[in-house]
Amino acid sequence: MKILLSILLTLFLLKDASAQQSRFFFRKLTVADGLNDGGVLAIAQDSKGFMWFSTRAGLNRFDGYSVKNYSHIAGDSTSLPTSLSRAMSVDSSGGFLVGLEDGMLEYNQQTDRFIPVAALQNTWVLQIEPVNKTTVFIATRKGLVKYNPLTRKAIFYRNSNNEIFKSGIFSMERQNNDLLLAFEKGFYRFNLLTEQLQKIEIPFLKNETITVAEVDADKNYWFVVRDRAGLLKVSPDLQRYEVYNEYLETGKNTIRNFTSIIADQKGRVWVTTQLQGLLVYNPAINRFERFLHDPLKIWTPSTNLHSTAYCDRNGVIWVAGNNGVNYFNPDKNLFRIIPVFDKEPDIRNRRVARIATEDKNGKLWFATIDGVVKFDPVTNEYREWNNREGETPMIHFNSVRGIFCDDENNIWIATGRGINKYLQKENKMIFYTAKDSIPEVFYFSADKDRKGNFWFSSRDGDGFYYYNIGEKKFHSIRSFPGMNVFAGEGGRKVYHDSKGRYWLGFNGSGAGMYDPSSGKHYRWQASNNKKEGIAGNSIVDITEDKKGIIWISTFTGLTSIDPVSFEIKNYNHTNGLINNSVSALAVDEQNRLWIATGAGLQLLDSSRNYFTSFGLQHGLPSIEFPEHAASVMTGGDIMMPTQNGFIHFSPQQFTKEHKKLVPFFTSFTLPGKPEQPLLQNKIELQYDENFFTIGFAAINFENASGTWYAYKLDGVDEDWKYTQNRFADYTKLPGGNYIFRVRASDDRTEWNCSEQTINIHIATVFYKTWWFRLLMFLLAIALVYAFYRYRIRQQKKLLELQGKAQLLEKEKVMVMYESLKQQLNPHFLFNSLTSLSGLIQTDQKMAGDFLEQMSKIYRYILKNRDSELVSLKEELAFVQVYINLQKTRFKEGLQVKIDVSEDELHKKIAPVTLQNLVENAMKHNIIDLDTPLIIDIVSEDGYLLVKNNLQKKNMVETSNKQGLASLQSLYQYLSRRPVLIEETASEFIIRIPLI
Hints:
CATH architecture of the domain at 823-993: 2-Layer Sandwich
Strand content: 35-45%
CATH class of the domain at 823-993: Alpha Beta
CATH superfamily of the domain at 823-993: Histidine kinase-like ATPase, C-terminal domain
Distance between the termini: 155 Å
Number of helices: 7
Oligomer: single chain
Radius of gyration: 58 Å
């Protein structure tokens, strides 16, 4: 009897262990993601947080986004050797060591190269255990080695007198100040302070070889022993042990199953196997839970053949196998995945979930494409109700879209061809038909209102039907008080809010609401008017948050409506949603809104400002959620349907934890050139290399896609730029010095984090450099000065030419003037001599006077022949003499009147000007006693006017028509005011400017 109970207990535990597979989501890293190959031999994490995987073809470095490969390249001495790596570790000073089958490499981060360690040449390295900055212990085929990474020297303990040190080491595990060493000839404790070796006596392991060893949180020893079946757990006092061998195949042809044992940060023991997948020890049941590969369940491991495991600094477990790496965080697994069916998931779309409900006994009921499923979360048992050809129908139709449990623990089912009710106590399925006042049509949902009525929404008929729990009858919405106005609309959803308002979601025509307290009806449809229109017209789900705001999901976005103010806000991919196709909605106790979309799950915080997104990397079985509603379970748990089963989670387990991320630079790219790694903190660029892209990242393996970055280029960006893109582009930057800054955070609102910088120098094109500008400035000054000197010279030449021209002009005028004065001689002399001759014969006394006046005239000319100007007084006296001589000849036929102001007599005038004008008047006009020539000389407005009456001669023989022109030219030189000549019908007037 005891044996039977033990067998049953074991079977139950094994069944329970198998049922737990869905509680971890194993993310994959394979060749498709960039690994050299899938045969992973060792795993380690370096000081910056990068994950390293050694494979048959070389090494792989993973930053959460992409994999960088290192391998042997023939002819390249800086590439990796061909030897396999089975051990890697970061030393205490931050260096990274890689153990090979024929030596060890040290990674140089500055050059991104691996440097061979000469001291360990031709040594097979099995394990590496750093102790401090100057000490690293290495387990090798040649025994224990102590290596100093600063001096790069090694001490081989096999050279000591202790024979044990000369044997190879299978396992090395650090425990405080000791190293636990599994030699071929026994299990030993090596004290790191005294370097003393002490054998650990294990009574039941006499002369047996331990190949793998680990210590858990309770200080139990876990061993894999060569030639002994099973996994051993040994008590801390080494007196008791237990064997776990239920996961072993037996027989002489069976390969060794257990490949590694690790204890994570919480002391849990994880075991990798070659046959039975990944195991984790559960001390509560003293058994191992097993995680096996299932090709139909993407959340399971990618293989059952594992080579090693590793726990990183953040508690993430990394498991290596024959086709890459699986990784997960055992303490951060929000979603439990529940398959819709336990068999035949790939027929009739049986992976696709629709909606779930919970009955009074804690059982889960699923509406599916292929009928109804009852799931027991305790035993993992499934039961199906569906129709098959040739068999009695179990429900109206296999396509089920609505399901709920009533107060009597009966299950109501809305199918594509009618309504069913399953009576659990009687194990009986009821088919409702038209005779029950409910048509056998297509139904989208089944809901309960706060008054106990059951609502069924259909695309056909009257659209909405309800079951009155008191009457136990079905009715059309036409008979529901106040709701008849919505009859005939294709229905998809009914929701009864906390204030008694009925919200209806229509199949293509928007949403409606009826408020019984006011008797008012409201309608909303999609519209280009943001204040009135909702996000879409095909409604999927409706719910109410803790503040009374109604949330409506549609095929084309999410809408919130305030029932009091009727304020509408729409959400789509432009303001936060990752996808416009929105389906299931649920509000948790913190008033956060959980939103299922066509591209993943999102959480809108209670402030309604920030979204958090969840995808495959967070444990979802599918990022696509179908067009069905969410279900809130007892205790506040939420179930949502996906295209690959249901997700079941407790929203209170999710808290926004801020993990400080350290950014690093990944690449620097110039147009037309290959991407370059950023290994230095300074970049030197030519002036034409001012278009570039800077790549950066941060280690966040649990949510790489959710990492936010803030960056800015000092001198270019006025403020920080926030993005989830890992690249920053800059174009057309002028030459100069710049500092690029970047931060990383897992929270869009939290930026109290470290910052990385890189200095960038762009050479300035020569014509923009300071020296060139200075040279151009000096050259400009020189040119201006040269131009100035040139202008001075030109002006000097011009002045000289102008001076010469003036001199020439003066000379010309003076010549003309001299000629003008010389004209006095022949005419005047001839006429005067004629008159004098007549006087001598008739009146010798007058002849004497006449001769004296002639002498005065010529004396005046001789006196002023070198003068440009004479006073007006002198000129008037001279002309008076001249007039007196002419009056001797013409008597009263010549009448000259002089009227000049005393104030004008000091002014200047060219000599013989008046004589010439008087002579000119006499030359051109008739002089007769009967018609005398009257000449007036007066001063007026700074001019001297000489005018005469006009009585022109018919011909003037002695005129060359140059006299007045010469006079005008003379005065152009002498005065700024011109000589003015005016002729009227009766007068001839000449105005001479007084100087």
